[in-house]
Specification:
Helices cover 43% and strands 15% of the residues. It is an alpha/beta fold. Bound molecules: flavin mononucleotide (FMN). Flavin mononucleotide binds at residues 16-19, 21, 40, 42, 67, 69, 93, 114, 135, 138-141, 166-169, 187-191, 274-276, 278.
Length: 311
Amino acid sequence: MKLNELFGTEFPLIQGGMASIATGEFAAAVSNAGALGLVGAGGMNAAQLRDHIRRCKELTDCPFGVNLMLMNPEVEEQAKIVVEEGVGVVTTGAGVPGKYIPMWKEAGIKIFPVVAAGALVKRLAPLGVDGFIAEGTESGGHVGEMTTMALVPQIRALTDLPVIAAGGIASGRQLAAALALGACGAQLGTCLLVSEECPIHDNYKQALLKASDSDTVVTGRIGGTPVRVLKNQMARAYLSREKAGADKMELEQFTLGSLRKAVFEGDTKNGSLMAGQVAGMLHEIRPLRQILEALDTQCRACIKELEETWR
Ligand SMILES: Cc1cc2nc3c(=O)[nH]c(=O)nc-3n(C[C@H](O)[C@H](O)[C@H](O)COP(=O)(O)O)c2cc1C
């Protein structure tokens, strides 16, 4: 079955859950534009999640889902809320969702854990998840070590379940490459940040538009939690503290609230401007629908072109 048929969407594309950004309004806008929108529960408490799910339902009749960050202190409650609110799809990040799977399956929820390596696939596939999101280190936000290019085919080889590629996809050419690697669709993050509907501060969008291909860096590879961000004053200061041997607690204190500073205050010096390596490919702010249609058209053209390219 094709991913768009599985989710009931027009395109086989899903929006990545993005903490503090993927509100009910944004998820609904993505779903209305033809992909699967996700409410990002990462920066929300349980009551806020319920509220955003309800707002999303008010604003769209299309399918949508929720991304749960398993390190969220209220995740136990959030895991029940997705059932109570009749959410159709749950994606999970930052942990192992094993204990919630029976409850979600009973409710008919489709479960797609985000994985950055094969170990979690072997552990979760027998528990009855519906597929995996294989997220490469090119992604914005929290990242693993493996690239999308190396990761997706290796995850594909481990399971017959649908694999969705994430990380480094902002054009139809990259989408076609993801399909060639064995994915049946893609999860998008960075390229949706520069949509008209995305609720981040305009300074954040402008910083993305100005970025070139090598303007992101991963903080936290040595002493903290690896996160890909645009290089700025804050990222440089973090990296020098990290190199100087700062411990995880100190580094976490240093970045506390920094994503919110970027998203809501537009503080491009001290905020954490999470973004993937495709930031250098973003040149204009467009409506979501145009972004998705362009990906679809370019992907089809690229698949045709490939038939002519090889020998
Ligand atoms: C600003 C930002 C915040 C993110 N927050 C989350 C999150 O809360 N939960 C999650 O599972 N993934 C998160 N991600 C990762 C995305 O869901 C997605 O997998 C990733 O952005 C795809 O790679 P790309 O940025 O190259 O498109 C975030 C990404 C960005 C850019």
